[in-house]
Amino acid sequence: MDIKELLQLTVDREASDLHILSGIAPYLRIEGQLSPIPDEELLTPEIVERFTKEIMSSEQIERLTVNKEVDFSLPFNQNARFRVNAYTQKGTLALAFRRIPLKIPKIDDLGLPKLIHTFTGLKQGFVLVTGPTGHGKSTTLASMLNEINEARSEHIVTIEDPIEFIFKPISSIISQREMGFDTHSWQIALRSVLREDPDVVLVGEMRDYETIASALTVAETGHLVFATLHTNSASQTIDRIVDVFPDEQQEQVRLQLSNVIEAVFSMRLIPSVTGKRVVAYEIMLGTSAIKTSVREGKTHQIDNIIQTSTEVGMNTLEMSLANLVKIGKIDLKTAQTFSLRPEELSRLVRSSK
Question: I need a labelling partner for 244 at 20 to 30 A (CA). Which of 23, 86, 152, 209 fits?
């Protein structure tokens, strides 16, 4: 197959990812599971290099040559978009494709909790969506932004690397900026966003000290900021944000964060008994108790606050997993694999019987 046929197969099989590496056949990831495409020949370095040249501009190839890796987005035949990472491994080129659906799904269609709708009604503050790579963070954020787009007249600015979902203006106007194409750095983009009259800002990923500091400033100045982090829980998310700053700045950052934090939604896509994946999640809301814990540096208290605040909508990952076991969507062994506290999960499952 050529690269266009492989991309079409990715779309047809509803795979989330396509991997192209020298020495093996092309691989697809379907419902979280990687497997080779049957009867496909092993890829040689020459084939991978040809595929790369067919999908990349001369400027992108130059950046790949200099930096050894490059991210970019790839429209495909009106059928899909792909987020692509071209990189080198063992001295040869490789390609990783992530399929981005053209249609932005609704919050309810994703199996997300109803409480997520309240995040889209906020006018200011900081909302973080966290979890491992490939577990639905970008899709969840896109569904929330599009709900705002449908319901309110706002200026939404996204800063992404690269642009994933393409938003069509409905009630809002939307400026989408791609790293390396529309701006040279996260810090510059976030500094200039305040001069672009935004109401809502999406930071594709908070990778470093400068990005996090700039995102906090945007939230502090009365805007609604959505962002992602590769963390496993709300308490870990707070620690990660604070820990990137020098020691002498951490007290000030805790104060800033406590003033703006509205929610941390940590999610996983769990293999169900039917083979499809279902959402398990933790929700932390920026209540006064949470804000106090953040401000005073007592993040070890956050898990307990979440456990005892279910009446306002907070939820631990173990509560979510236990409920999925109870209603028969996932089995206990699978739940334990994804649990952060397996003993607590076992207790919740026993108490629900």
Answer: 86
